[in-house]
Design a protein that fits this description.
alpha/beta; 11 helices; 9 strands
């Protein structure tokens, strides 16, 4: 796979394949698409202290990846993720000091930040239970595919915590609106798949047996696109939340001018002139 930092560039040594031997989730990479599977199906794929940290570090590493152009995030055994493990996380948290607790909450938030900062589009394939931190990982993804039986719950209030967790109060209102987000974050109730689709949380719903294939097909189409430009789109979508309209227009003018300097822009023009389909290489 071609990389925007060529082999002769002195910075090239900073870039390499994404970590290929995770300990706390399953990973496969094919044709530029990394499929990351949370795989504790006997417990509905809960997270632990170690899996939180490994996921954070893996998404951070994507900023330097040479082999991943899109990501599919999913769970094993018919469920996405049930959130933090009750026995391995919530129990120990009740015995921690304030500095220890702050270190933990900052770590969990850093996972969301890493997902939003990586240039690759992240497609979440969400079946069954999607709760707590699992719902936040879904929310932090760029696109979400669900099934008719997917149940999504930001259930922090159910365990005596604020709905403000891992960026929920910033991300969810922008996704589904302030009123609906307020309801879900205050009550902790489950959002049905049909609600999620109607409200814009899910981009599409698929039968369970077709969900992963649909997500991988979508990710493959993104991986074959102008990936430098995709990263720019993702950056602008994130940064423009805090901009005025005039600032956003200027930021997009600069972003688009940068993309016009890429080889993919030239390839698209030459393919159009030749009445062919462009083959993008990400540089």
């Amino acid at each position: 796979m071609k990389h925007p930092i060529p082999d002769h560039n002195p910075m090239r040594g900073q870039y390499g394949p994404a970590p290929a031997q995770p300990q706390h989730f399953a990973l496969s990479v094919q044709d530029g698409v990394a499929t990351l599977t949370l795989n504790r199906p006997e417990r509905k794929n809960p997270l632990t202290f170690d899996s939180y940290a490994e996921l954070r570090d893996w998404f951070l590493a994507l900023q330097k990846s040479t082999d991943v152009r899109a990501v599919v995030l999913t769970g094993a055994g018919g469920n996405f993720c049930s959130g933090g493990d009750v026995h391995e996380i919530i129990g120990p948290l009740t015995r921690m000091t304030m500095p220890e607790l702050l270190a933990f909450t900052r770590m969990t938030g850093a996972l969301v930040a890493a997902m939003r900062a990586c240039p690759q589009p992240v497609v979440a394939a969400i079946d069954g239970v999607c709760a707590g931190a699992g719902a936040m990982m879904a929310l932090a993804s760029d696109l979400r595919l669900g099934t008719p039986t997917t149940s999504t719950a930001f259930l922090f209030t159910r365990v005596g915590l604020a709905g403000a967790d891992m960026g929920a109060c910033a991300l969810l209102p922008r996704m589904i609106g302030q009123g609906r987000a307020s309801e879900l974050l205050l009550t902790g109730r489950s959002m049905t798949a049909q609600e999620g689709h109607a409200w814009g949380f899910f981009n599409a719903l698929h039968d369970s047996e077709n969900l992963l294939a649909a997500a991988q097909k979508l990710a493959a189409s993104l991986a074959q696109g102008p990936t430098f430009a995709h990263g720019m789109t993702k950056t602008m979508l994130h940064q423009e939340w805090a901009m005025t309209l005039d600032q956003a227009i200027e930021a997009e003018a600069q972003a688009q001018a940068i993309c016009m300097q890429t080889q993919d822009f030239r390839r698209a023009y030459e393919a159009f002139a030749a009445k062919q389909r462009p083959v993008f290489e990400g540089d």
